[in-house]
Specification:
The protein is α+β, with helices and mostly antiparallel strands and 337 residues long. It has helices spanning 2-16, 27-56, 96-104, 120-127, 189-192, 277-280, 295-300, and strands at residues 61-71, 78-80, 87-94, 109-111, 117-119, 134-140, 143-145, 148-166, 170-172, 177-179, 182-188, 198-209, 213-218, 227-228, 232-237, 239-254, 260-265, 268-276, 289-294, 305-306, 309-312, 320-325, 329-335. The chain has four domains: 2-56; 62-146, Beta Complex (RNA Polymerase Alpha Subunit, Chain A, domain 2); 152-237, RNA Polymerase Alpha Subunit, Chain A, domain 2; 243-335, Beta Complex (RNA Polymerase Alpha Subunit, Chain A, domain 2), CATH 2.170.120.30.
């Protein structure tokens, strides 16, 4: 019916529009008439379109809208064990303007979790009562299960992997420090109990380092059922330029039985090591390493040569062994008479 009315109006408008100039008529006059006719046509055409929309927008339409779900109030001592759907598909029927508004700005649906099974159809239909000329015809899913469990809180260490590359002759004075080094997580007992550490998946990669390190690393939580106490941590480390030094250390025997004596050839080894420039002068009057051979290693040996063990005893210095010579020494056992 509306289409026929629109077609009739259009035909009447077109009948008023003159095309071309008849022989013997004034061109200027005809141009004025043509312009006036064009204006009449445009004005009438807009009225026709308005009437067409007015008639058709009052019709009944059906659409589907994805509406976001929002969890309602949960008791303080309980937590969800399973993720609920993020959206629910709602089929609506009604006039055009309210449906267009709902399609462009779908409302958030709060879910009442007092019961273990929630009827989404009933809850959404109640909320849609405020929208005139709109009815809910279908909801998918129509039912969802809500599983609640005792909420617990747990503190676990943070694990961060790093890949650090330094400029030549530069390195760490001490191990990098993470601050804070632990995180508090809260959620359902079955979700929290198995977690023994909080691993940050992305490896921190830095290259060309020659200055102290200070980095902020975001803490991301991909589990919506879990709350975390941090959103970022910091990693710091002292970096220094190193220089080379060496020291000759006599070899000792550990756990040597009474009445025995072990001599080595050579009797000492030379250790080359790196030391931070700011510590170089301090260490000149110290022997930072001890070199020893466990007596058990001699008992088990059948070659006559053993490799000594090296232990850093000046732990206040950031020393790094480069090499030592010789790698193995001969030994001789002397029994006291």
């Amino acid at each position: 019916m509306a289409d026929n009315s629109y077609q009739n109006i259009k035909e009447r408008i077109l009948s008023y529009v003159k095309k071309g100039t008849k022989p013997g008529e004034d061109d200027d006059g005809n141009k004025i008439v043509t312009k006036e006719s064009a204006l009449v046509f445009v004005f009438a055409y807009l009225i026709a379109i308005s009437l067409w929309f007015a008639v058709n927008l009052n019709g009944i339409f059906n659409i589907s809208v994805n509406m976001p779900l929002e969890i309602g109030d949960i008791p303080a001592d309980l937590a969800l064990t399973d993720n609920l759907p993020e959206y629910v598909e709602v089929s609506l029927s009604g006039t055009a303007l309210p449906l267009i508004n709902l399609y462009n700005n779908p409302p958030t649906i709060p879910i009442d979790v007092d019961e273990s099974e929630v009827n989404l159809f009933n809850q959404i239909r109640q909320q849609m009562n405020s929208y005139q000329e709109v009815e809910v015809s279908k909801v998918e899913p129509i039912l969802i299960s809500v599983n609640l469990e005792q909420k617990i809180t747990k503190k676990v260490p943070i694990k961060l992997n790093w890949d650090l590359s330094f400029e030549p002759r530069f390195g760490l004075i001490s191990n990098p420090m993470i601050s804070p080094d632990s995180i508090t997580i809260t959620g359902a007992a079955s979700q929290i109990a198995p977690i023994t550490e909080w691993a940050i998946n992305d490896t921190l990669k830095l290259s060309g380092i020659k200055d102290d390190i200070s980095q902020v690393i975001p803490v991301t939580n991909t589990n919506p059922l879990m709350e975390v106490s941090l959103d970022e941590i910091s990693l710091t480390a002292d970096v220094s330029e190193f220089t080379e030094n060496e020291v000759s250390v006599y070899i000792r025997t550990r756990n040597l039985p009474r009445g025995q004596n072990i001599t080595y050839n050579p009797s000492s080894i030379v250790i080359k090591y790196d030391v931070p420039l700011e510590q170089f002068s301090e260490i000149q009057n110290e022997t930072p390493y001890v070199v020893y051979v466990p007596y058990r290693k001699i008992q088990e040996d059948q070659t006559g040569f053993v490799t000594p063990d090296i232990e850093l005893v000046a732990t206040k210095y950031a020393l790094k062994i480069r090499s030592f010579q010789p790698k193995a020494v001969a030994y001789f056992s002397v029994v006291d008479q």
